[in-house]
Amino acid sequence: MTAAATELADRLRALHVPGKPLVLPNVWDAAGARAVVAAGFPAVATASAAIAPSLGFDDHENTPPDEMFAAVARIAAAVDVPVTADIERGYRLPAEEIAAQLLATGAVGCNLEDSDARTGELVPVGEQAQLLAGVRAAAPELVINARVDVFLHGSGSREERIAEAVRRGKAYAEAGADCVYPLVVDGLELAEARALVDEIGVPVNVAYLPSGPSLTELAQAGVARISFGPGLFRILHGHLEAALRTIAAGGDPYSR
Q1: How many other CB atoms are found less than 10 A from the CB of residue 247?
Q2: Average pLDDT over the chain, rounded to an integer
Q3: Arithmetic mean of pLDDT, 158-172
Q4: Structural domain boundaries, residue 161
Q5: What is the model's pTM?
C-alpha cells in the first residue's frame, strides 16, 4: 500500500468501534458514493448484489472479476474517504491476486464470505481461514471483514447456528480478519446480536433489516459496523419501476 492508502486503511479500521458503529449505506456506482460522502458518512462500502445487476450480471460471482474490480475502482476514484469492497469470495482467485487486484482499485477494505457461490454450501472453516490468512499476508494493512454465512447456508437450530457463527468468527479473527460479519437476513433478534458481539470478541458487523433492531439498539448491543447491503439499490429500483409503470399508463411520474 502507498502511504495515502495506509492512512485510509487506518481511518477505516479506527471507525469500527463497538457501541458506536460505522454505518455503511452500500452503493454500486460513483454517483452513489459521492452522495454517501455528501451526506456525511466517513466511509463508502459497495454491495456485490447491487453492482452485479447494474453491470448486467446476476450476483453470486457471476460478474467477471475484472468488471467487478473496475466498478470498485471507479467508486474509489470518486471519493476521498476509505472504500471497502464486497468481493464475495474473491471470484475463485488465489489470495495474493485477490489482494493485488483489490489494492489496485484504491479500496482499502473488503468483505470475503465463507460460502461457495457455485454450490451454495459453506466452505470448511479451515479452508476459509487459510484464504483470509493469505489475503492478510499479501496485504497487511487491508481491513478484512469476514462474512459468516451459517444463517444462509448452515443447518441446525438457531442456537446451533449462533454457536457455529461464533466458532467460525473466532477462527477468522485468528486468521487475520479485523471484523466478523454473521449475515442474518431472516430477522436478527437483539439478544442474538448481543450474543455474537460478546462471544466472537472482535468488532462485529450486522446487516440492517427493516423489521430488525434499530440503529440505536444495535449500537447499544455493541455492534461495531452496520451494513445496508443491496437494500438501497432495491428501494431505488422499486421507485424506478413504479415511475415506469406510471409512464406506461400515460401518467406523469413527477406528480405527487
Answers
A1: 11
A2: 97
A3: 97
A4: 3-246
A5: 0.97
